[in-house]
Fold this sequence. Notes:
The protein is an alpha/beta fold. The protein has helices at 6-9, 22-34, 51-63, 77-83, 101-112, 134-145, 165-168, 181-195, 201-211, 215-228, 236-243, 248-260, 263-275, 280-299, 308-318, 323-338, 346-358, 380-387, 418-424, 428-435, 437-447, 449-455, 476-481, 485-498, 523-530, 532-551, and strands spanning 40-44, 90-94, 122-127, 151-157, 172-175, 198-199, 233-234, 458-464, 468-473, 505-510.
Amino acid sequence: xxxxxxxxxxxxxxxxxxxxxxxxxxxxxxxxxxxxxxxxxxxxxxxxxxxxxxxxxxxxxxxxxxxxxxxxxxxxxxxxxxxxxxxxxxxxxxxxxxxxxxxxxxxxxxxxxxxxxxxxxxxxxxxxxxxxxxxxxxxxxxxxxxxxxxxxxxxxxxxxxxxxxxxxxxxxxxxxxxxxxxxxxxxxxxxxxxxxxxxxxxxxxxxxxxxxxxxxxxxxxxxxxxxxxxxxxxxxxxxxxxxxxxxxxxxxxxxxxxxxxxxxxxxxxxxxxxxxxxxxxxxxxxxxxxxxxxxxxxxxxxxxxxxxxxxxxxxxxxxxxxxxxxxxxxxxxxxxxxxxxxxxxxxxxxxxxxxxxxxxxxxxxxxxxxxxxxxxxxxxxxxxxxxxxxxxxxxxxxxxxxxxxxxxxxxxxxxxxxxxxxxxxxxxxxxxxxxxxxxxxxxxxxxxxxxxxxxxxxxxxxxxxxxxxxxxxxxxxxxxxxxxxxxxxxxxxxxxxxxxxxxxxxxxxxxxxxxxxxxxxxxxxxxxxxxxxxxxxxxxxxxxxxxxxxxx
Length: 552
């Protein structure tokens, strides 16, 4: 006998076997019991939640030799024929492959008028009904509205918004719910028991999480793991290896690093996960899932059905965070995931997200001043990523002030020398550049939007000699971009033309921002700091813009 997939082998055959959709099963049973079966039903919900299975159960209940009955026997010839998919009066149509008006006319409209050959009712089950064409829906409309007494329609869809309202209004709608973790765990345990196999509790939990609310996916994943496992027992390491699940300990290390404000450790842990073969998307999803669980633990919304050890561990790990801090971390991670397809260097987004979540101000830091904070250790890139969070020191020159961002308290202050600030106020060329800085940015933006965004991170702070202007950066990335001779010459020529042909030479210097604001950051400043997606977009635009500069 050919092998039968687990999700087919253990498909529910009675309404009592349906898990997680009791509201649908009970309503259909009551309708059959009272003889108030509708002529058309619309089953909508996520994949793998039992829509097609329930449609077959309805067909079985209507056509059972003991029926119509809310409890089909599953033993008579008609029940067996429906279960095995060979009942001629139960017509299943895949709208994904039969989308046209001719398919609807031949399969449904022309045949619906004839009486059933063997069964009591003709039942039409149309899967993925949203894929029908507009003309096919129009052709189906009249038959669906007033079908013969012996016909029942069941339309199933995962995208109910794509089904015309004229169709929806003629059906009794049922919304199938995404399966809970507990329901999926129980289903996996039942299948393992019937198969004579065993699995560790954490292995079952991992499969249930990856299934993402789908019973079918859960059993397909279980079958994949069983094909690899040896000895009839499934452990967590087997599941992690086969399904490519991110190591929970590594996720915990990142969360703990964020709790301590340890940017370097968060970057190292994320890098290690990628080196082990996990994709950037998988890493971000795993961390977001953990942060979500911690948020639920912090506000007391965790499912009490979770194992007691897991509940205790999540509550303990959530203690260093506030609910607001966890929600901000989750926002950063979700936005980073949304931008993955738009950024060629996905590792940049991952690194930025790690810096963002590890740099959020913790409650214990509210009264700590910048000089007392320990210096950051690690590579220059890690230091630069932390430094971009610091607040730039104020100057007295009339230059445009750079955007503020909340500090991390992780970088030791390096104030700008007062002599340099004083000198800036007495230089004629410097005053001209500072006074027209916004015009310079606008002129550069005409050729390169990304180039202008990089220059917005710079400030002309002093003059050296007759023609040299020093641009001060507080972030390593834009500073590095201005080291290209072609880019520097482009900006010099732009400034020179704007100043009537006066010769200008630019020199860049990198000075980590210092100082802590004595006032709490404003709402706009918090948004600027936490919006990892907008910063990632700025990085992408910067790359694009400077490609234009290279060509210029």
